[in-house]
Structure formats: structure tokens, C-alpha cells
User: What shape does this take?
Amino acid sequence: MGKEGQAERAYPFRIKRSSRLVQRRRGRRIPTCGMDLRAVQADMKILVDADACPKSVLRICMDLGRKYDIPVWTVSSFNHRIESDHHIIVGTDPQEADIKTINLTEAGDVIITQDWGLAAVVIGKEARCVSPAGREFLHNRMAFMLEEREMKARFRRRGGRTRGPKKRTSEDDRRFESSLERILSEQIGKTAG
Assistant: This one.
């Protein structure tokens, strides 16, 4: 099989450029010129790694999901009580919620997580990723962030202590909301036009 066949298999979500812009998604052709946004948004979803997600962040995700008519999926272990229309409960094994989130992620989705490793994987699947602090994880910074995480883990294994996260404030909620709204607007605009 030539390189063309490999590229088609590796990236099934293609945007064809012609007189009519058409996007391939899940084996269907979706014309993106002059169409209802609900059809475009039906393919996009917000996925929340709800194991360590603050309640205020989850509320903001639900509110913006309703505003933009985008489904919000939450994934957590059965130790957490999450109220969501699309909630997936996994076992208590380490990284089980992260693996389920990775398996559910598709190109164009928006993922909410504070796990840098999970963020690196979903960015590789062409999804957008934002932390509960409102910081978007970007492809060009992931290598540095993963290296920093490894250095801190090595330091802690040797008996060192690192600082934990600061107490969450209402400013953090405002920053997260504006960041998520900007990302959703960009994703809708990118898909629609």
C-alpha cells in the first residue's frame, strides 16, 4: 500500500477544498456552506474528565453546552456523583477514566481536563483541550509540559515537595468560561465555514 492509502487511513476526517466546501465526518459528507449549525454541532461534543473537575467548571460546561446546543459528556469513576445527560461511569483502576475519554474523543471535540498526559493524547487526535483554570493546551507546548511533569515527579520520588494548586476563585471560573466560549466559537466557525 502506498503512502496515499496510509494517509487516508490515518486521517479519515478530510476537508476537501473546491467550489463547495465539504467535510467528511464519520463516513458522511456534510456540506458546510449555508447549513444549519445544529447539524454541524451534532458531531461535536464537550468531554469532561470529571474525576478531579471542580463543580463550578462542570456547571459552566453544562451551561455553554446548552447555549451552543452541544452535548456534554462526563467520564468519572463510580466514586463520584455527577449529574449529566451523558455520564459514563468507569471502574476505579488508575487512568481508567482517561482511557475512556481518549476512546470517546474524535477530531473537533473539546476536552476539559487538568491531566497533561491526557491533553497530549487528545491533541494528537485533533481535538481541542482546555484546563479547568482556563488555559488551552497547545501542541507546541506539550513536550515542555510533559518534561516538566516528569521532572517534578522525579523530584517527589526523591523525597522533595512541590506546591499544590492554589485555591479556586471566581476569577478562575470567569477565565475558564471565556476560554471555553472562545474555543467553542472557533470550533463552530471552523466547522461551519
